[in-house]
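Late entry, evening session. Most of the bench is empty. Finally got around to the prediction I had been postponing all week. Sequence below, unchanged from the version circulated by S.P.
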Amino acid sequence: MTEDKIPRLDKSAFSVVSLEDADNDLEYWLGKTPEERLSAVEINRWLVYGYDRATARLQRVFEVAELERD
């Protein structure tokens, strides 16, 4: 996903249910493909932590080690 495709939270689609009525979550997610589940996790991560282009890529670490000569 790119920054222009970041999903927006629809605050009008909100409902409050008791914990006893929330049983169908497992069935819902088991009915999704692994790709859909991973995409949902990524969307939730972006909603919680935001999108930062600097940290969106893998971090590369470069270290120069000097060779000891006998």
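Two things to note before I forget:
The mean pLDDT is 77.
The longest helix spans residues 34-49.
Will write this up properly tomorrow.
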